Each structure stands twice: as C-alpha cells, then as structure tokens.
Amino acid sequence: MSKLRETLETGAFAVVVELKPPKGTAVADMLAPVNALKGRVAAFALPDNEHARMRLASVAAARLVQEAGGEPLVNLTCRDRNRLALESDLLGAAVLGLENLLLLSGDYVTLGDHPQAKPVYDADSVQLLQIVQGLMAGQDSAGQPLNGNPAFFPGAVAIPEADPLAPQLLKCAKKIEAGAQFLVTPPIFDLEKLRQFREHLPLNPVKLLAGLKVLGAEETALAAAGQWRKVYSLPPDLVSELAGKEPEEVLALGAAAAGRLLKQIKEERLADGVYLKAKGRTDLLTKILETAGW
Amino acid sequence: MIIAERKPFAEIKAMVAPYKKILIVGCGTCVAVCLAGGEKEVGLLASQLRLALGLEDKRLEIGEITVERQCDMEFLRPLCDFTADYEAIISLACGAGVQFLKQLCSLQPIFPGVNTSFIGVNNDVGFYTERCRACNNCYLGVTGGICPVTMCPKGLLNGPCGGTIQGHCEVDPEKECAWSKIYHRLELEGSLDNMRRIMPLHPCDRSTTPGTVIHPAFKKRYGTNE
Amino acid sequence: MEFTPKILALVCTYCTYTAADMAGSARMQYPATVRIVKYLCTGRIDILHILKAFEAGADAVMVSGCEAGSCHFLEGNLRARERVEYAQKLLEEAGLDGRLEMFEVAASDAPKWVAAVKEMTQRVEALGPSPLRRGKHLHPEVVEQLENMVQP
Questions:
Q1: Domain ranges, residue A209
Q2: B40 reaches C (C-beta below 8 A)
C-alpha cells in the first residue's frame, strides 16, 4: 500500500509537496526538496506539463523521486494523451511502483507554451478515474483483460471556490463515484471558503487535501492591479501586504502566510492534509513547515 | 451552415501570380450567407485583383461565375465547358466545394479563396458562431440542447473542468462556460439527472474521416461497402 | 501638365445632394473636381460601386450621407459607414490607400459640402493621380452605369 494512502487512511495529517519537473534534463533542482524533506512530508507531487507548459514527464520524474527515497504522487492530465496513451502510461507507472495518482482534465493548450499543439481530451477526468478503476479490476477501457493488474491510489481535483458551484459539486460527486479516494483543491487563502466547501462534500471516506501556495511577485502585482483571474481568490489584505515588495521578500512573506494557514488547517482539522505549491524551492518549503510547527 | 472566411488578399494574389486568365467560382449557399464566397464576394475579389494588378501594370483576365452549390454535381456539371478557357480557378466555396470542383476540372490548378471555419449559425449579419463539430454521435438530447463536444473547448462530457471563472471559460474569458449553461438549462428543464449520470468515453471511431453516409433507401443502389 | 483630380461623389439625395444644390444656387465657390452620383440613400451604395469607380480610373471616391440619427430610412447611413470602412480595407489590400472617405453633410449645410470637396481635392492633389488612370478621363460608361443602377 502506498505511504500516502496509509497516512490518509490512518487519519494522520498528510503534507504533500509539489515539485517542479525541469524543462530539460537537469533534475538536481527538482530533487533537492526530496533530499531535504523526505522524512518530514507524506508525498511529492509531480505536475504533468503544468499550465500546458512542456516539462519533464511526470511518470519519469516520479520514478526519480522514488529512487531518491521520496513518496511520489503522479499527476496525469487528459490534455496530451488519448485513451491508449493514458492506459499504457498508467501501466508504466504501475510497473515502476508508482501508485499515487492525481487525475486532471488539464489546462487548455492555448494557455501554455505550445499553443498550436493538438488538444486531446479523449477522456475527461471522470472517465480517466473510471479507466483507472477498470485497470485495477483487470481490464482496459475497451474491455480487454490485462495480464497483471496494477494497484493505484487515485485522486482528483475539486474547486471549492467554483462559480457557479453547483455544476462543480455535481462533477465532484461523479469523481467520487468513479473511484477518487482523495480530492485536492486549488490554493486556498480564505479558510472560511474551505469550511463551507467541506459541508458540501458527501459523508464518505473521501479525503481532502487543501491547496496552499506561496505567491510570487508577479501574481501579487496582477492581483494588486485588479487583474486576478483564477479559480481561487486572494484576500485583499494579503495582496496589499505583499504588493510592491522585492520578489524575494514577497516569497518569504508568502511562505510565512502559507505556514500559518497550514497550522490552522491542521489544528482545526479543516482538511486531511495539504498540497503545497512553493515553486519547488526547498527554502520556501522549509519556511512553511517551520512556521506551521511541522 | 458552413461558415468560412475569405483568405487574406495577399495570399490569394500570390496564388494567381503566374496566370493571365483565371476564373473565380462562387458558391451561392452557405458561404454566400456568411459573406465569404457568394456572387457579391466573387465580384469584390475580382475587382480587388484587377485594381492590385493594374497598379503593378499587369494584366489579368478574370471570369466570374457563381453556382448554387459547389458541393453538388448537379450544379457543377454545367461549368464543365466554361472552365476550359481558363488557366487557373479560384473557388470561394468551402473545402468540400473546392474538392468537388477540382474533381470536375482536372486540367487546371484550383486555389481555395476562403478558409473553411466551422459549422455554425448566423447570429446576425456578419456575426457567426460555431455550434457543431459533426461528431456523428449527438448528445444534445441529454445536455439541454448545448453541445459539450463543441461548446466546451475540451469537449468534456461529464461536467465543467476546474477552470470556470464566474461562469466563463478558462480558454476564452469572453465565452460562457458550456457546462455552466448546460447545468442551468437542465435545472430549468428538471432533468439534472442527465448530468448526474457518468457519460462513457466518446466513440471517436464514429467520426473517422472521411465519413460516408448512405441513406437507407439507397443502400441497394450504392452497395454497403463504400 | 497640371493635374485636375477626378473625384466621384456618391451622395444621398435627402441631405448632401440638397446641400450641394444649395451651394450651387448660392454661388459658393469650390473646385470643379467632383462628379456627383445621386442615390436615394447611402444605404444603397454597394462596395462594388466604389471599387468599380476606382477600376474606371477615379482618383478618389467620396461617400456623403446624412448625419448619424437623421437618415430618412433610419439607418442607411450607418450601414454605408460600415461598408465604406470595409471598402477602405479592401482598397488598402489592393494598394490604394487614402482615396476613399465618408462624409456627413446635412441638407442645410452647404458650407460643409464645400469644405468636404476642398478637403478631398487637397488630399488627392497631395496623393497625385490614381495610378490606374494612366492619363485617361474618368470612364464615362462607369458613371452612366452607376446612374442607371440608382435611378428609376
């Protein structure tokens, strides 16, 4: 059984740290947080061409994390692969010993760095969860039997601040029906929103990982200029605290803010764990954990 | 109907540069409605070409003709004799029409004068939007009359992605999120259960190109193996 | 050789034509560079009419209709403006910039008509003759054709 699954199922609080696979083959920076933090966190997530920007394959990166002694969480999007590729990549992950999956639709290609690429979306995230269930039960999406079944611990994304929320909740229910064991949210800054969202989730064993993010100077500037367009909101007082400061200071303050949120989420048990996005930087991650007293 | 946009003038001008006598063939159906390739646009393109080449002191003889539909041999066949006099042909029909016309006029090169955009609707004069991807597996009956394959850029079948912002799409903030609209329509209809059911994977094989449809009444005439 | 511009004015009978008429009766002086074609409404002007005028060798075309909001047919002048702007784009693509302009001249505003003709004449004098004219006069057939199109 995966360590992440074990952590969540025993009711322990899980800290997942997101790494930054490189654009290129230099993997040392990506792996630095693994070496520094592997004893302290539950898992390391490997984004899959995040924001539709081409980077090292998440399955390969996850294997490197594992070799470095970390517990990987492979992200897999529907954007770049048809069902054949999704399924064979999933089997590939399984034989490499990668069990934890975060399954997503994927940001649209025109928003990324290869805007002329062909968007695939042969499956959507619900169907991808079903594909994973099928593989675990020994058959592919065309109904053909497998020779050796993979074991996975699949999760999906949920959007607490979605507007409108109702269709999102409906999709969330489908993801759970299709076998999602845990849900990860986009970054949360206002815990009241998380609290409200919790109330909407069905009473079943699905686990919730709250997203936490260290804001960068560019994002802060966008928000200060009133041009923030994301699926999560930023509290005005945080934006005014960070706006106009030196980039490194913004990151340090942002890490402290994330650390305080982590502490509160854990103390009030607003989620079963957190998913930290801190540009894959060890110093920022360490600061978050220290602030939270982790 | 099929929506098209005229190709940039410079591109068309470059295509016909080697010729002295060309024929511009318009199409009187879809592309005429969307003001890209009807009789009027044939006249405008011909005039524009004459002006542009006149400025360069070149002579280009241009024939102009528009047929009812270039995607129909019945209307194309009468062109047969007519086209023989020309060195090259510009067709202002959609891609289907261009190919059908070339099938008839195999001796000259043929150039498309428009880029075929999509299957869409005429919102108002000059304003067209896409509605159908011709996926050959229509979902409209369970999605409140809004096509998720077309209206959602990702073609998601089981609800919105995580990118909806205030009911708008992550891909184009000007556009409403298709799944927000589908939800709203289904709620009004009282058929939200449609959306609660998990939709299976889309049968992409149904739209393997090139598609062929033989009407059931004509199976015998055309055989079923085509 | 001195260059006398040949400008084709496609005008609305309800406003600009009346203004031009009034300018004549009041003996206001303006360059003898325009040939006027009267339309029932500028909304009737087809882009093809404009392009044909240039093919025939016009140095410039001016379209002149009612002021916004006072079209006899409610919005013919607004449609004419959309068409003129599109025709400007087509002409620019073909290599003829700056030789087409839209004006708004109310029926009572003869001085504005005079000013418009002077402005267009100066502009054409600066641009020089249309390269398509090749020393010829405006092709009489085209003017006749246009007149036949718009008059009963």
A1: 3-215+269-281
A2: yes
